[in-house]
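Section 3.1 - Work completed
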Amino acid sequence: MTIKDHLRAARELPVLAPRRWQRPTPFFDNVPLEPLVDENSFIGREPDRAFTRHLPESMPYLPKPRWEGSQTVIDGYWRAWDLTFRNCRRVPLETGFVSPFVDTAFNDCLFMWDSVFILMFARYGERAFPFQGTLDNFYAKQHADGFICREIKEWDGADRFHPGDPNSTGPNLLPWSEWEFFQQFGDQIRLASVFPPLLAYYRWFRKNRTWPDGTYWSTGWSNGMDNQPRVSAGAGVTNEHDHMSWIDTTVQAVFAAKILIRMADVLGRTADVADLPPEVESLTAFINEHMWNEKLGFYVDRRRDGTLSEVKSIAGFWTLVAGIVPPERRARLCAHLMDPATFGGPHPVPSLSADDPHYNGELGEYWLGSVWPPTNYMVLRGLTATGEDALAHTLARRHLDFVTTVYEQTNTYWENYAPEQPRPGEPAHRDFLGWGGVGPIAILLEYVFGLRPDFSRDVLVWDVRLTDAHGVTDYPLGPVATLDLAVAARAREIDEPVIHAKSSHPVNLEVRWHGGTRLVAIPPSA
């Protein structure tokens, strides 16, 4: 089957009769109950049926960037927000949804994988629309054993997949989205409310997606990278686990566990996650001992017979964001991101290494080489976690340049992009806001401008790497603070930036540049 055939098949899955989550199946339902689900306050919550806003009435509540000499990027930023607000939805009646949401923009379902990455940029508009509430609708549909379906139909609120289907759920990235939201706004009340369903889902994942050695499995559909050639010949590329230990899914378990541990520390619930540190330790050791392909210098899938895959997928970079790469391997792994023969081609970062026989450099052909905003964001976050800020900025600039060029040509943003020329990938959905806003909004603010909130340390990091004059007004931080930030043009990267900043509330600004670091305490403006 071609990728178009796979996509067509996905859209033509049989439609199940509308049903409430409490009675999800017409057959005997004998699943072990998860006590944490009793703490899930989203189940049965009265729906918030507030109307949605559009861009014109939302602009006062959005951050407003400026960049001298780059007006097209700024125009594209606003076009991305315009398309995003067009995809905001009121809670449909008789669905069991509890919050207005931003639509995935793929079909008539909410997707877990997509929603996580949409919220990486949409959180900057949280004061205009409750974007993070999109995830509330997944929590409201949690089953009594902790299961949450990865795709939920918007017209009746029913799961798209049976829990026993290998393709039914994943990736387990919900904790990441909630932690990023906490880092931006410091909302401990929300953190406390989402912790029980997140931990219950984690436990379900561990019970139902692991092998005896503790590693995790997935499929092309459930890990989000539909058609990558990772399984054995004869196995279904999109829907079979092939008895492999999947590198991304296993590492994501470590990543999710680490975040849940941090959440528990904030909330005083460390006893609830006492089993997670040993799992993090054992999985980290296993990954580094048994899933590192020394010949390739890359993290890969492990087959059922213990042999290692030869496929270099962007999935291997999840090890960076999870913080599990030993120092002696980081340089070799990161070198792939600048190597044109693997992941450092014209438009970084392709989803499949350029030296793979399945790689399609002209069209991308979905996950056979296309550049995807969500996985690019993951790579950048991983580089930040390992101190590779200069490389992150370089990759972010190149990605934004390509995305902006395609925006100039088409007046829109796309699901994915071709890896070797400025054009959409093929196939790719247009007007994909959707995670298409990751580049023109989140990557612009966080990696081109370098503004990265860290509420747990009570600072806003400003990693200034541009030498052009730039800044942002109405930048949201914490529960109530709004900042206006500007930096003057510089002759050289090593010159200390001249910062102008004001805030509605006290904020600590950690300014970084090529030549140093300084902490600036911004008092509240009069």
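Second construct:
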Amino acid sequence: MSSRRRVVIAATALAVVAAGTAGLAGRHGTSTAAAASTCSPAPAVFPESSLKAGMTGTGYTVIQGTKPVAFGVKVLGVLPDGIAPGVDFVAIQVSGWAVQKTGIAAGFSGSPVYIDGKLAGAVSYGFYASDPTIGGMTPAQPMVDLFGYPTGTFGAATPKPATSVKLSPALRSTVAHAAGVPTTAAGTGTARELPVPLAESGLNDREMNHVQGFLDRGSLPFLAYRAGTASAPSSVDPAPLVPGDSVSATISYGDVTFAGIGTLTATCGNESVSFGHPMLFNGSTLLGMNGANVVTVVPSILEPFKLANVTGFHGIIDQDRLTGIRGIEGTLPALTAITETVTNTDLGRSRTGETDVASPDFLALVANAHVISDEDVVFDRIGDGSANLTWTINGTRANGSPFTLNRSDLYYSPYDISFDSGNEITGEIGQIQNNRFEKVRITSVHVTSSITQQHLTAQIVKVETSSRLQPTLAVHPLLHVLPGESVKLAVWLRHADGSETISYTRANVPENDRFGGILFVRGGIPLGGCQYCGIFGGQSTPNVSSFDALLAAYANSERYSDLVAAVSGTGGAPSKTILPRSGVITGHAFIRLVVG
């Protein structure tokens, strides 16, 4: 993680403690059908072609609490097609008491700007390296056009990193002059899309760093900070959001609340547009839409940002496009409930927690954070130990029929057991959602886990073998075998307390083997899955030919507590024998097989 992100997280860790939690009562809804549009009349728009350098206007955003305040806006110049073909970039400078300490901060995205009483655009870009009062505006008309988009069916797409706008020499000179710096000064030539402050609850510093590092690796435009939780919605806030209000694009609710914070630009009937740039650029999307209560705007020479908690529920966000996100008031989202019951067998403590996820793209990431968070609380420490997890993933297939994956596994870590125990389940979630066979939806995930400081391990320390040609059970680095025979194994396992036990199993030599091969004795290796396919795309599907076969492959995959004897030879298909044990198998052994 970059030092910049560490500064952000460190600054917010203390600030949000005093902010309080803005929670909602109720459970998750079941409907994703958007309410019929009532968009009429559309807001009056200041013509994009009439924007000229020197014009002044008024912007609105929330600096503290929930009430928008005004700030001054001056147009510095216009770069035709600067954001995209047909979408101009408007360089601006802001002024007034509301912005004098922080300038344009992350979370200002979508702050509406009016000229002559008409909507001219939304604050959406910044020049942090030169002067934080200088930024960029997305023109109003491309945002207002989002009101006319149809209600689409959600479809996953790989998110786009934040964009930047390279200024023309003339506009760069104007920006530098306004900032009072030389034209060659760093940061005056490129405007960058404002990051989205990402409110996160339920995570400690280690998890926050993990999430921010993950976002940084994908170049996703988020600044993660710790915030209060928001409960899954059951009703809609009766007071609709208005231009200038803070808005939360909510990924999840409950124990692990994730929400992107920005500003609402315009409304039309029961629809709204916000941000002035994408959140993930997924096109048709599915997010919750909530308000936000701004605690403060955190000043920074690197990246000032709004610190806010999620407040009342308003509807869904169904479009995530180049010039903004569209919300629809009055619709409850279909949420995927992630529940976990954790028991600490050392302390006798237990807890059942729930997180409800609106965005399928983030389901695996949120599930991982939920498992870690609940286990951290019950384990009441970070360190070595073992965890036994059993989980059920339920969902619906393309034809509407249900599916279920039941699975369990045992984990051991000498460093951080709660952090390491959630990877398998999240890999399965990502792979199921992004399978290549059919479109499916995961409707619920339930985990039951026990966690302990004990080292539930069994190390392979010795392997004895025997065959028809070498019938004495002994350590044979090289074992003579016959094609198709079953080799006997005695595997000596050393447990964490120093005791040793013997596990007896067999390994089958391929029928057509004529020369020999390798007998590999090891612990089980589960199928890896694809943890973040929903966000970054890609697949790691095992060699199967249908969705049913995919589910079966994961259900029957090796476990870390399996003792595996695998034979690869020069003839016939490789064979494998699996013997379940009560501890995570560590270590391995190789035996060379020679036919005849």
